[in-house]
């Protein structure tokens, strides 16, 4: 599937002029960016789609610790891209996707759902599509730090007063702040010298 340059997310750090159509992610199309675009247009791993696909098929590319074979596989905020012996974390900087080299094989994900299974087991659904079972006390809206190496949750970050947060959508996207007060579905967040009232769905505890 392809979209015109005018239709793609403004988070993509690519010129608005160029080839008319660009490949889009196989899923999470509104919040993610395809590995192909990241490798070709940001890291300059290859000049063409064919060159990038060859690198992927050689199993040299990993996302969150696992080899991928689909050049349309989406990267989202805080996903870790492995290229050879280097790892890069996808962040938002100046309202654009950017890569930050990292040595940590872990990521922060937001809890977007929670359900009770048989025998009182709790299933947590994460913003990146992963699910896991836990016995920890956790609430929808909180975040978890997940270790790829250990394949487990290392830490739970609660969405509460005093928590550091990242704005993940809206006009303040990419900005970081601290929650001053939480109300139903919204929070007052101190960003810089000011304070803004934002919906909780626009925030991720970090």
Description:
- By secondary structure, the chain is mostly beta strands.
- It has 3 domains: 2-102, RNA-binding S4 domain (Structural Genomics Hypothetical 15.5 Kd Protein In mrcA-pckA Intergenic Region, Chain A, Roll), CATH 3.10.290.10; 106-157, Ribosomal protein S4, central domain (OB fold (Dihydrolipoamide Acetyltransferase, E2P)), CATH 2.40.50; 164-205, SH3 type barrels (Roll), CATH 2.30.30.
- It has 2 helices and 19 strands.
- The strands form 5 sheets. Strands 5-4-7-8-9 form a 5-stranded antiparallel sheet.
- β17 (186-191) and β18 form a beta hairpin.
- The longest helix has 9 residues, at 49-57.
- 27% of the residues are buried.
- The model has no long low-confidence stretch (mean pLDDT 88).
